[in-house]
Specification:
globular, 41% helix, 7-stranded parallel beta sheet
Length: 297
Amino acid sequence: MKIFLTGANGFIGSRLVSELIGAGHRVLGLTRSEAGARQLMAAGAEAYRGDLEDLNSLRVGAAKCDGAIHTAFDHNFANYVVNCQKDRRAIEALGAALQGSNRPLVITSTTLFGEAIPGQLAHEDTFNAKHSNPRVTSEIITEALVERGMNVSLVRLSQIHNTHRQGLVTFLIDLARQTGRSAYIENSTKSWSAAHVSDTVHLYRLALEKQVAGARYHATAEEGVPVRSIAEAIGQRLGLPVVALSASDAAAHFGWLSGFVSKNMIASSEKTKERLNWKITGSKLLTDILNVDIEAI
């Protein structure tokens, strides 16, 4: 198949290009720049100029292909609510291009929305449409597309990692370097689910090829890695002290990250493994933190 891929130069997308081409697919990759276009062509993909806010570019790109995978998302958390609405509009545009066909569309979300109650273990067959995280709008519009008869599925992300990036953990590493200490909230028992990026891109391809409308899959290799263990691994790798902070001190220290550090974000992938025969082969989160490329941060 020829696949339209948003986020094709991103952390996940750039690796997904190789995964798709290696499996015999062709890739039309969305890019905003000439440098991005050169990167895509070097990887064997076809470059297509556009961006998430140019909805017509999304519609035209998707219309040219046999299916689409949407991995792009603006991770500027200072504008998180606005960026979630931007994502909803992008999904609507991609859906409009594929309307009336059975061409597959794979959308990116987060395992948070598989929590029946925030903090509980997330499951693939659960969708909490009333979740407080504003990115829930992406799953709401995806569900609407499925109800309109479209062949849309979801990949929900945990903390996706390698030795260069680790999801929210990357921000914790950067904060530790800035403050000279790696911190966690005292007496915390919170944990985060995680998956290696190589396992994640393989999951996207399997979801695309399976083509089950309405399916939700979890990119989760580890159900829950303790946040304290993450802080300790960061401290060990950077040679910094590890400190336990009170809840009030943690809010000041972590800033916008405090809302995540104080949360349980755990998820199951048992149904994903069963339904797609998804095999976990990548390294674990703590291993990658202990071997993180400092120069890449």
